[in-house]
Design goal:
By secondary structure, this protein is of the alpha/beta class. The chain is 28% helix and 22% strand. The protein has a six-stranded mixed beta sheet with strand order 2-5-8-11-13-14. A four-stranded parallel beta sheet has the order 1-4-7-10, with no helix packed on it. It is globular, with a radius of gyration of 15 Å.
Length: 156
């Protein structure tokens, strides 16, 4: 029963953070971005202007939620998520390059997102293939753990 905001966050005009929300470090909430209660925003996520995140949803680390989006399931880490209702459009490659992620990390995540979003596999099959092919990437491990920990399902 605590709303907690991490270090070095940028919360712009008219943004709303409801009860029982947890924001990690370096989170950006653009103008009028809205979080319902019990939302978790992980480190370095960016919530675009006039976007809404439904109660009990999570937004993963390094995720980018585009402006005017409506998030009703968990938004994947390292992903570009946009729309009403939001859809995942793949890896936030530009954001990862700006933050200094290695080429290997970006390549591994790009392949993981391909398996999740484009390979015509269901989520369970995709996770099995990701685990077998991309076992040595901490970023991929974080993605897999995020999906496995989802209570509401993830946006694909």
């Amino acid at each position: 029963m605590l709303t907690q905001i991490g270090d070095d966050c940028l919360i712009m005009a008219q943004a709303h953070i409801a009860h029982d929300c947890l924001l990690g470090d370096h989170v950006i909430m653009a103008n009028a971005a809205t979080l319902a209660g019990h939302v978790i925003i992980e480190n370095r996520a960016n919530i675009g202007a006039y976007s809404g995140v439904h109660q009990f949803c999570r937004v993963g680390q390094e995720a980018y939620i585009g402006g005017y989006s409506v998030v009703v399931k968990d938004a994947l880490p390292f992903a570009l998520t946009v729309g009403n209702h939001a859809r995942c459009y793949g890896l936030n490659t530009t954001g990862m390059k700006r933050r200094g992620y290695s080429r290997e990390a970006i390549k591994s995540l790009h392949h993981a997102f391909h398996l999740l979003l484009s390979a015509k596999l269901n989520t369970t099959q995709a996770l099995e293939q990701i685990r077998s092919e991309l076992a040595n990437s901490p970023e991929v491990d974080a993605l897999v753990q995020f999906i496995e920990g989802s209570q509401r399902g993830v946006i694909k």
